[in-house]
């Protein structure tokens, strides 16, 4: 039964991949400037964790209920086969529908609530579309001059700060935030950083000109 399910899923996805590129939305988070706002967004992360925990509990209950139903259906099948003097060719797993007990929609709601909470706290949520399937069908686009590799070299005087583990400060609007560099300078000229005191979901890549050494 499980094999048939995956074959059906593949058959449904195959036409979609032939229709053109498929995109998904990714989000980056810019923390609020105030200390109160930073404390507020931490509670957003805690709320998301609790929401996900409830999703897992719901899934566990759904799976258990589906397996109980599968056993009931299997016993009814066995009784029917015995009554008709037919061989028993199926087993309990053939009646199991627990594969339908997913958490994607529940966790999607958790993420949506977290983004709304983050904005209410004064932070910014930036969405961007990323190709996940059929990306080879995207026609090549001419590189925009402001974002071509050569202009990115303007940040070169600040690039030495982009060293893994380097403690820096990152400029956002008119304030500086403490952060740690999490990797080397990327090919596009940006530097990956992690804001201290925030979740990893809020990590981002910034232009080196927004970096300065940590101020004591």
From TrEMBL:
Keyword list (alphabetical) reads: Signal
Alphabetical list of InterPro entries matching this protein:
Chromo-like_dom_sf
Task: Give start-end of the signal peptide.
Answer: 1-20
Q: Would you tell me the protein name for this molecule?
A: Agenet-like domain-containing protein
Q: Which organism is it from?
A: Roseomonas genomospecies 6
- Please spell out the taxonomic lineage of the organism that makes this protein: Bacteria, Pseudomonadati, Pseudomonadota, Alphaproteobacteria, Acetobacterales
């Amino acid at each position: 039964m499980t094999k048939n399910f995956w074959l059906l899923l593949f058959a449904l996805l195959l036409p979609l991949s032939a229709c053109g590129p498929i995109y998904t939305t990714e989000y980056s988070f810019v923390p609020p400037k105030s200390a109160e706002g930073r404390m507020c967004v931490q509670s957003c992360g805690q709320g998301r964790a609790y929401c996900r925990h409830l999703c897992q509990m719901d899934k566990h209950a759904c799976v258990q209920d589906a397996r109980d139903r599968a056993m009931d259906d299997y016993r009814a099948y066995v009784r029917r086969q015995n009554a008709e003097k037919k061989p028993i060719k199926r087993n309990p797993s053939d009646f199991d529908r627990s594969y339908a007990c997913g958490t994607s929609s529940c966790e999607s709601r958790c993420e949506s609530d977290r983004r709304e909470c983050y904005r209410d706290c004064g932070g910014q949520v930036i969405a961007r579309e990323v190709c996940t399937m059929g990306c080879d069908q995207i026609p090549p686009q001419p590189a925009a001059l402001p974002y071509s590799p050569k202009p990115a070299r303007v940040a070169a005087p600040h690039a030495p700060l982009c060293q893994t583990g380097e403690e820096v400060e990152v400029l956002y609007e008119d304030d500086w935030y403490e952060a740690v560099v999490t990797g080397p300078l990327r090919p596009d000229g940006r530097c990956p950083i992690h804001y201290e005191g925030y979740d990893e979901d809020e990590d981002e890549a910034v232009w080196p000109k927004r970096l300065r050494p940590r101020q004591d």
